[in-house]
Amino acid sequence: MERGNPAKSHAATAVLLTLLAMVTPVLADKQLVLILSAASKLEQLDSPEVRKVFLGLTVTHNGERPRPVLNEADARVKAVFLRRVVSMSDITGSRQLLRLALQQGQTQPVAYKDIASLNKNVPTGPVAVSYAWAKDVEHNVDVKILRVLWQA
Q1: 103, 118, 126, 140: which could join 112 in a potential S-S bond, CB 3.0 to 4.6 Å?
Q2: At residue 10, does pLDDT exceed 60?
Q3: Is 13 exposed, middle or buried (0-12, 13-18, 19+ CB in 10 A)?
């Protein structure tokens, strides 16, 4: 019985490990995460609560009322968040927030057009809750990732 060449076996393993190392950062780029201030006492928000917070409905958790902060730095992150987490299109979500503002006098959520502003301002609000690609916030010690909302 013949055995395979160990040199070929090691070379194939090395190639496989190299390819895996190249793919891992790409997958990390495809994680949409829920973020808040590292100082926040909020420990969890389940999917229905996240949806309610971003639709402008009242959610209270551990005596705190999370406030939505919109991430408009990247059109794709906004589209994925609305479609996959809130289950609405951009137009429908905007109409919902406008309706609540008109009917109940609620203020529109703060929206940031660049990730640097989002990273700088979310930590200043102890009840501010937002969303971003994991790669954009993972090195910010003032922001904690509460959970993964969506992954490619």
Answers
A1: 118
A2: no
A3: exposed
Q: Are 129 and 35 in contact (CB under 8 A)?
A: yes
- With a CB cutoff of 8 Å and minimum separation 6, the contacts of 49 are 59, 61, 66
β-partners of residue 144 are 36
Q: Which fold has domain 31-151?
A: D-Maltodextrin-Binding Protein; domain 2 (3.40.190)
- Backbone dihedral angles phi then psi of residue 139, each to the nearest 5 degrees: -100, 0
pTM of the model: 0.75
Q: 70 with 55: CB under 8 angstroms? A: no
Helix (H, G, I), strand (E, B) or coil at 71: strand
pLDDT tens digits for 85-104?
Answer: 888 777 776 676 667 666 66
